[in-house]
Design goal:
single chain, two-stranded antiparallel sheet, Aminopeptidase, 2 domains, alpha+beta, 8-stranded mixed beta sheet, 49% helix, 21% strand
C-alpha cells in the first residue's frame, strides 16, 4: 500500500482520537475539585495569592508574602497523609485547600494545627460564585474536605473558627452548622464575648477589633460547657499562637505593640465574662 493511500485512511482515525482526547480534557478541566496547595505548584500558589488579595478584606489580611512563605514552609501539608503525619508528630501543621472550577480558583481555606493545645484553627475561608457554582456550594466542598483531613488523624481534640458580626453572620453560622452536621459533627457557638483583632501596622493609629463569635467543633474532646479558665486558655492561644505569631514572622518590629493590643482585648473580654457570670449566677460558659 502506497503512502498516498495510507495517509488519507488514517485521517478519520486521527480526528477521532483528537476529538475524544479533547472531550476528556474538557470534562476533566470543567470538573469542580478541591486540591491541596503546596510549593509543588508555584503557578497555582501565585494565583492563590492573587485570589486572596482580591477577595479578603484588607483589615483581615496578613501580608501576602507571609502567607506565601507559610505555604512554602516544610510544615504545610501536601496531602491528607502528610497532614496526618505532621499531627501525629505533634508539629505545627498548615493546611491550605483550593476549590477550582474550570481551572480557576473559586475558594480558599487555610487552617493551622496548634500542637500545644491540640486543636485546629480555621484562619481563612474565602468562597465566591463561579459560573453555575454558588459560593455556598464552594464553602461546603472546602469544609467537607477539611473535616475529612482532621477526622482521619484521630488525634485532634477540637476545631475553632471565627465569624465577624455583620449582615451575613447568621447565614454563615447556619451554613457551617449544616455542613458540620452532614459530616457527623456538631458545631457550637461559645456563648460569651469574643473579638477578632485587626491585622494592622499601627501606622494610622490604634488597631481596631471587631465583635465576633467563636465557634467550637468537638472532635475527640466532648465539652458541653467551658469554665472561664478553659475559655481563656483557648482565646489566649488564638491571639498568641496564631495572630501574634504571624507578626513574629512577617513584622517582628511590631510584635511588642500587637502583644499590648491583644492583652487589652483579653482584659475587656474578661470584664464582660465576669459581669455575665454575675447576671446569670452561673460560672460556666454555654456552648449553643
Amino acid at each position: 500500500m502506497s503512502v498516498d493511500v495510507i495517509i488519507p485512511s488514517l485521517i478519520p482515525v486521527i480526528i477521532f482520537i483528537v476529538s475524544v482526547t479533547y472531550r476528556v480534557y474538557r470534562k476533566h478541566r470543567n470538573k469542580f475539585k478541591v486540591n491541596f496547595l503546596s510549593e509543588n505548584n508555584r503557578k497555582m500558589v501565585d494565583e492563590a495569592m492573587t485570589f486572596y488579595v482580591n477577595n479578603m478584606p484588607p483589615e483581615d489580611r496578613i501580608p501576602p508574602k507571609h502567607l506565601k512563605n507559610s505555604i512554602y514552609s516544610k510544615y504545610t501539608a501536601k496531602s491528607k497523609k502528610s497532614f496526618k503525619k505532621g499531627v501525629l508528630k505533634k508539629n505545627e501543621v498548615h493546611l491550605a485547600l483550593l476549590a477550582i472550577k474550570n481551572g480557576r480558583i473559586c475558594g480558599f481555606l487555610k487552617a493551622i494545627y496548634i500542637p500545644k493545645r491540640n486543636y485546629v484553627f480555621i484562619a481563612y475561608l474565602i468562597s465566591v460564585s463561579k459560573e453555575n457554582v454558588e459560593s455556598s456550594f464552594v464553602t461546603s466542598k472546602l469544609v467537607n474536605a477539611f473535616l475529612e483531613c482532621v477526622s482521619e488523624t484521630k488525634m485532634v481534640d477540637f476545631i475553632l473558627f471565627e465569624i465577624v458580626e455583620g449582615e451575613k453572620s447568621k447565614a454563615k453560622e447556619r451554613l457551617f452548622k449544616h455542613i458540620a452536621g452532614n459530616m457527623g459533627f456538631t458545631c457550637k457557638r461559645i456563648d460569651t464575648k469574643y473579638f477578632v483583632p485587626e491585622i494592622c501596622s499601627f501606622d494610622e493609629g490604634d488597631c481596631e477589633f471587631y465583635d465576633s463569635k467563636l465557634f467550637y467543633i468537638p472532635v475527640l474532646d466532648k465539652a458541653t460547657k467551658f469554665t472561664k479558665k478553659q475559655y481563656f486558655t483557648i482565646i489566649k492561644s488564638i491571639y498568641r499562637d496564631i495572630y501574634l505569631e504571624s507578626y513574629r514572622v512577617s513584622e517582628p518590629q511590631l510584635v511588642k505593640d500587637y502583644r499590648v493590643f491583644t492583652e487589652m482585648i483579653l482584659d475587656e473580654i474578661e470584664d464582660y465574662t465576669e459581669k455575665m457570670f454575675e447576671e446569670r449566677k452561673n460560672r460556666k460558659i454555654d456552648l449553643i
